[in-house]
């Protein structure tokens, strides 16, 4: 346990020093939030509801991207630099190393959620109850697990450039198709039908429901669990294949 704690702290320090993380996970979502609530879409019927909805969109957008890109690309970089090979000859077990990466990233997510929530409260004076703030934050924190698993999948790629390209494309496709940039209801039917099966939609949907005084649906929960299991199984299968070579 002490080994896991120390490794988690080390991983968190590394992430916080990463300017790439600060830009993509904090600066960009907050900038988008300001843009789409104070410059664009200023004539919506219920401004307060839209501001709260879009705050959840940008927070889930941030955490999803951090899970896929920050974690995934870092794992590839470490493999390319021989760090993962070095870890194997130390007393640190491989599963502890990977768990520390994911736990450390989750703690960073908590920081991201807090910062973006504070930004939303300051920029637009978001009026939510304590229950809604806490529950939406917890939903985003826990709901990010499938994307952390996807990040470990990306981390199995051999080249940093490939991982960066794939994670960027996936990130944007999931965000747009999942309704994080614009409500899925205004999309063409074909995109709407696709989006409703994506993990990003169910991730965002749970948070959107909470700020409307509702609860995430069972479909939201089960879809995220299903994607988590799929990504974990794929990771295990591909890693075994790589180790067998």
UniProtKB/TrEMBL annotation:
One of its GO terms (molecular function) is ABC-type transporter activity. Keywords: Membrane, Transmembrane, Transmembrane helix. It is found in: Membrane. Residues 52-235 form the ABC-2 type transporter transmembrane domain. Pfam families: ABC2_membrane_3. The chain crosses the membrane at residues 21-40, 52-76, 96-123, 135-156, 163-184, 221-238. It is a multi-pass membrane protein. The keyword DNA-binding does not apply. GO terms for cellular component: ATP-binding cassette (ABC) transporter complex. Its main location: membrane. The keyword Cell membrane does not apply. This is ABC transporter permease. It comes from Bacillus mojavensis.
